[in-house]
Amino acid sequence: MAKYLISFPSAAMKVPDSEMETVGRDAHAVIQETKEAGVYVFAGGIDETAAPVLVSANGVVAEGGYPWAPPLNGGFTVLELPSREEAIAWAARLAKACRCEQELRVFWFDPES
Question: Could you tell me which Gene3D superfamilies the record lists for this protein (predicted)?
Fold first, then answer.
């Protein structure tokens, strides 16, 4: 089975503050369903209050991430599923719950990891 990343950037969530509690409840319900289905690996969001650091091969630490890359933020769910079709179905359920489109990617399998 492959592991799939279902994610969205923070800017994709254009939900009124008055609906955020409902969105959170709906998203948590879908995550609970993934756990009950035995496909859950992990889920969460990037803590945008904690600034990233860039660590070089020699251990030098620089504040901020890659200067040329867009910021990495938003929410992430990793599921282990038997097919891309099932991953798309779960992504659709998360999109409905979160009220925003979800990006779906498959992790490349590395037998050494």
Answer: Dimeric alpha+beta barrel (3.30.70.1060)
